[in-house]
Design goal:
The protein is of the alpha+beta class. It has a domain of about 260 residues. The protein is about 30% helix and about 20% strand. Helix 15 runs antiparallel to helix 16. About 50% of the residues are buried. Bound molecules: S-adenosyl-L-homocysteine. It catalyses: L-arginyl-[protein] + 2 S-adenosyl-L-methionine = N(omega),N(omega)'-dimethyl-L-arginyl-[protein] + 2 S-adenosyl-L-homocysteine + 2 H(+).
Length: about 525
């Protein structure tokens, strides 16, 4: 699925809040940046990457992705790009909350239902959204929650985890209106115009406050392998939303190679590289394409040739093991099972796994009775298999090579839901994971049809365009066929351990009032 791309924009249900500016949109060829060599690069970031690779050697795909998406010097999300808006019809892609307001409303209802199922805590509730884009989803969630007064008044703080300063500003404008913004040690702060509670922005979830490990617990967990040494604050119930966030996190790619290849990178040729008698994982690394390459010499897929210039970077198999190839594919039985099949490739997203672990620790902690809160992850990717060759580039609603125009193209990769579930379960023994299930099933169970019917009844007679947009929008979110998002997108929940007694609503559970 080329997410974000195949969703015809006419299905938007809101009056479009679209991009303001056409920076380089659709015209790729007119900006070239030269390096110390004669070669002209498409963007300053392309030149910097090429120069770094010249100095340090080929780089992991994850490093390339990270630079392209969040480098402060020309990253897709983090550079201002002269006001270029990534979202909407005039941007590069459109996401579910931008397609239909019902999407965010149902996520709001899901949180209300989980909060009720967990005993309706009257204080200490936190909302955390990671990767909030333009803030549309949180806006719809908060508008929905406002109608559930006991929950609305139990919310202490809303945290927004966002790497991009321009998107942080856009979110603040939408969600806080004219309230003044200040910065303190917790970060960039404002007040929600809908609920009147503090909103705090952070660049990484690690900067969102969390409980400190108490002394006895610190001693008890000293020997336990944890990714970060924090303890769940039992007075807090974090409700975490991640929509199309995990697909933007950098991945490493590996391929299994047959035995008898050198196993270690050596800085000298003495002693000679060791050889192996068993298959090994080799990392796919990013290198510049040869000067004067063409689409034909690079075998660029036809669907990606419309950008004109051929890709400036490519993937090549490392000639020897790298620290990542020795470590990451050994972390799960799922990867190990494929190692003996030469040619097998896998993608691993360590940052995604560490986010899932972080969610689990915030919800679970180390004492069963303090577990509270929930995380809802919605994204696209296979339910159980390991993603393969899934990196894609999107620009102006078209698939493009992920190796062209670095920093101007959105990069994303399929989410490995099983890897996230494994990470969550091993990070906390007091959480359980439900799903992944297809987004279509989740939204149907949450009542998308009924809510659409309700909205349709409110449409003025004769406003057929609005009717069509509403109708088309919700159907697109649940449809399973080509262009639909119901099957490829999945929903997965991390909730406090109940031994299977309480299934979350949308995942087979009912609301307990
Ligand atoms: N959830 C939104 C936006 C999805 S796009 C929606 O559905 O419309 C991905 C979002 O994640 C953007 O807001 C982007 O700036 C943010 N993002 C990408 N990588 C990030 C990272 N490493 N840390 C924090 N935010 C990141």
């Amino acid at each position: 699925m080329r997410r974000r791309l195949w969703i015809p924009v006419q299905f938007c249900t809101r009056p479009a809040r679209l991009g303001k500016c056409g920076f380089r949109r659709g015209s790729y060829g007119s900006f070239r940046y030269s390096s110390t060599e004669a070669r002209q690069w498409s963007t300053p970031l392309a030149r910097n990457l090429a120069e770094a690779i010249k100095t340090t050697g080929p780089i992991p795909l994850a490093s390339y992705m990270r630079q392209c998406l969040t480098s402060p010097h020309g990253g897709y999300y983090t550079s201002s790009q002269d006001g270029h808006d990534q979202f909407g019809r005039k941007g590069d892609f459109i996401t579910s909350p931008e397609i239909s307001q019902i999407f965010g409303e149902l996520i709001g209802v899901w949180i209300v239902a989980e909060w009720m199922a967990q005993g309706q805590k009257s204080r200490g509730v936190e909302l955390i959204e990671v990767g909030p884009g333009r803030g549309t989803l949180m806006d719809d969630v908060l508008r929905t929650m406002r109608n559930f007064k006991p929950l609305a008044s139990s919310i202490e703080t809303i945290y927004m985890v966002e790497a991009s300063s321009s998107l942080r500003e856009a979110q603040e404008r939408l969600l806080c209106g004219d309230t003044s913004v200040g910065e303190d040690k917790e970060g960039f702060k404002s007040t929600s115009k809908t609920l009147g509670v503090p909103m705090v922005w952070a660049e990484d979830i690690r900067f969102v406050p969390k409980g400190k490990l108490s002394k006895p617990n610190r001693m008890a967990t000293a020997n336990i392998k944890t990714h970060s040494n924090f303890f769940k604050d039992p007075s807090k119930s974090p409700f975490i939303i991640a929509h199309e966030f995990f697909d933007a996190l950098p991945i490493h790619a590996f391929q299994s190679v047959p035995p008898s290849q050198p196993t270690l990178i050596t800085s000298t040729t003495i002693p000679p590289p060791r050889t192996s008698t068993t298959p090994q994982w080799r990392e796919l690394l990013v290198t510049p394409t040869p000067l004067n390459s063409t689409h034909t010499t690079l075998s660029t897929p036809r669907s990606q040739r419309h950008t004109g210039a051929p890709p400036e970077f490519q993937l090549s198999l490392a000639k020897a093991s790298t620290p990542h190839s020795l470590l990451l594919p050994e972390t799960s039985q799922r990867y190990k099972a494929l190692k003996s099949r030469p040619g097998a490739t896998i993608e691993i997203c360590p940052e995604g796994q560490s986010y899932a672990s972080e969610f689990a620790r915030r919800i679970g902690g180390d004492a069963g009775k303090s577990a509270s809160g929930a995380a809802l992850i919605l994204d696209y990717g296979p339910a159980s298999t390991i993603p393969v060759n899934s990196l894609r580039g999107i620009r102006a609603h078209k698939t493009v090579s992920p190796f062209s125009y670095p920093g101007l193209v959105d990069l994303s990769a399929d989410v490995d839901f099983t890897a996230l579930a494994e990470a969550a379960l091993s990070a906390s023994s007091t959480v359980e994971v439900h799903g992944p299930i297809e987004q279509g099933s989740f939204l149907q169970a949450m009542g998308i049809r009924e809510r659409a019917e309700q909205l349709l009844m409110g449409v003025q007679k004769g406003d057929d365009e609005k009717k069509e947009r509403l109708e088309g929008g919700w159907r697109r979110l649940v449809e399973r066929g080509v262009g639909g998002m119901g099957k490829v997108y999945k929903a997965m929940a991390i909730v406090p351990l109940s031994g299977g007694k309480k299934r979350p609503v949308g995942f087979g559970g009912d609301v307990e009032v």
